[in-house]
Amino acid sequence: MFNFRKRWATAIAATAIAAAALSGCAGTASGGTAGSGAASGDGTLTIGTIVASTTFAANKSAWANESPYLQAVYDTLLHADPDGTVQPWLATEWSYNDDNTVLTMTLRDDVEFTDGTKFDASVAAQNLLRFRDGTSPQKAYLATLADAKAIDATTLELTLSAPNPSLLSFLTQNPGLQQSPATFGAADEQTNPVGTGPYVLDKGATVVGSTYVFTKNPDYFAPEQQHYAKLVMNVYSTPTAILNAIKGGQINGAPLTDNSMISQIEAAKYTANGQQLNFFGLLLFDRDGAIAPELADVRVRQAINYAFDRDAMLEAVGQGYGDVTSSIFSPDSSGYDADADQYYTYDPDKAKDLLAEAGYGDGDITLTMPTSSGFTPATYALTKQYLGDIGIKVEEVNVAPTSFLADLLAAKYASTVMQLKAAPSSWETLTLDLLPTAGWNPFHTEDPKVSELAATIQSGSEDEAAKAAQELNQYIVEQAWFAPLYRPQQTYATDANTSVQTQTGNAYPYLWNFVPKG
Hints:
The protein contains 14 helices and 20 strands. The chain is α+β, with helices and mostly antiparallel strands. The protein is globular. It starts with 43 loop residues before the first strand and ends with a strand.
């Protein structure tokens, strides 16, 4: 049985760091503006983002690239440390019943929304149910939430239809966001956020789609988390635009989507903060052969894995930043097995032998794959070359970026080049990629072995779940459900005025982990 309990410990405010007197030109991230604030909350943090906010409605929200906007204005029920460890926040303690289907949480009693509405267990329950029934890309995280109700003002009870081993972690993300109930269904709900968070959106200074400005919430219950008086989030649509902003000293931090720029940002005296968040390779969706019968044969899928020189792909496409792998499981996951990373070697002769055993000769297989401007031409050229070397032809279909993901999730293609999140927990990997209901299992492949191991991961003891997760990892690798090539380094650049800790499982550092350097 899992039994989780955390008690609220009074946070100790960070020692104030005196702001350095910095000289600089107007329009840069120095000179007493961005990056020059003290830990007590002076100054401005200016960061770059790669997507605009699509919505501030919590029940429709997306996490990852949009998490900075949401964390500015909303609190979540729980917090996560940079390494993913769950900590108390709006919920101060919690415990499960014996079969992990009822989660009881104790909530703070001293928190108000910026419109004056009191935060309590009834509000929290409403937000959870709205998220479950909403349109967020992560709504499946609460798929097992049967009900949420207030026992009293500070006691929240969540009833699950089945155990959810990652629920506490999910409540540190957008499923746990708390929005004022006074704004539910309001005409401006998606553009005028009202939360309990550390900042308030400055609508007058914000240019939707381009620049988002937030000012400090003067009544915030945890002022030690407000490291800056003001936040500015500028949207940059291309890697070159981010690089130019870095070279011009216009931002304190931003994600790099092209690691070939690392040397240039380091020359500009920025720090490249790296982590491994995703895996890159081929997704072999059609494992039952619905539209590509060849992929129903595990030997064909294995041949595809042996076809690639992973080290060469990492150097050519990933600029050498990352680690080769044959597995979709994150090193942070209980299912991680270092041996699985090295399972498939570069062996085109073995690949050809496997295809011959499966009854396919040179040129007998043609795979139709979508292409998108999100990946470089070299990525597709090398994929085509390696598969061609073992006798598999690739027919490319150029798909508009606006429909690329939708087409994949609608099962229009049997396989594709793609980069996906390597989830930090085994249960999240199952819910994202492996279960028949997983979004990235668009052909709804169902396997008795996967189901059996999933049940143990969901309901077994911690040791049983970890053992089952490692067995699942090995099984998915051997069955070649995917052809992962490497885990690329995700890089977040920060200037000399700013310290940050990257966040396990998320594309952006969490806002409270940006701190000005003294």
